[in-house]
Amino acid sequence: MSDTLPDRLSTDPSSPYYDADILARNVGVRFKGEEKTNVDEYCVSEGWVRLAVGNSRDRHGKQLTVKLKGEVEPYFRAD
Q: How far is it, in rounded angstroms, from Cα 23 to Cα 74?
């Protein structure tokens, strides 16, 4: 497996951008230079992240998210 992360990655199994193999390698995301632990999805080329908002759920039971724009830097965490 390569050490390069995809341009777009999601933690939602129903998303076409979900990749369990990559997520199992402990992916971290820095957004605007700050470590974020509640990232649901990111896109490097478009410069945005989706962050989970509290414990609120939508009518389908999925966690509510907010989309923020800025510099996104995904990386593999060292264990």
A: 11
